[in-house]
UniProtKB/TrEMBL annotation:
Domain of life: Bacteria
Pfam hit, one: MerR_1
Keyword Metal-binding annotated: no
Residues annotated as domain HTH merR-type: 1-68
Bilayer-spanning residue ranges: none
Record-given protein name: MerR family transcriptional regulator
Species of provenance: Microbulbifer echini
PROSITE patterns xrefs: HTH_MERR_1, HTH_MERR_2
Record key words, sorted: DNA-binding, Repressor, Transcription, Transcription regulation
Length: 131
């Protein structure tokens, strides 16, 4: 099947397929007359990539997951460890974002939000004491 058919059946864009090919995540079954030709195995890989990316995995992490998927000698603990590490990083990012959210909420609460030029938010960001 051609790139537009593969894109449609995988739920990805043609641009995404070209990107995954350029990064080495995907190798079309063959190229005929300069056109990509995708196989059912390519579609399975594309669906795997799409689900992994939707779960937050980076292209490099997807590459590792694909290598594990295609390795009959794999150990499930390796895959689990990779996902545990991803989850740990995500939880750290979530904590950071919650802290940012609290800071922003505090900024909003400290600001009069009126027509005066004084702005407690700008003062706090400038390191000036608020009056």
């Amino acid at each position: 099947m051609n790139i537009s058919q593969a894109a449609q059946q995988s739920g990805l864009s043609s641009k995404a397929l070209r990107h995954y090919e350029s990064t080495g995540l995907l190798v079309p079954a063959r190229r005929a007359n300069g056109y990509r030709d995708y196989s059912e195995a390519n579609l399975e890989a594309l669906r795997f990539i799409q689900r992994a990316r939707a779960s937050g995995f980076s292209v490099d992490e997807v590459r590792s997951l694909l290598e594990l998927r295609d390795n009959p000698g794999r150990r499930s603990r390796v895959t689990q460890q990779l996902v545990r590490e991803k989850l740990s990083r995500l939880e750290a990012q979530l904590r950071d974002m919650l802290e940012m959210r609290a800071s922003l909420a505090s900024f909003v609460d400290s600001c009069a939000g009126d027509d005066s030029p004084r702005c407690a938010i700008l003062e706090q960001l400038s390191g000036q004491p608020c009056e």
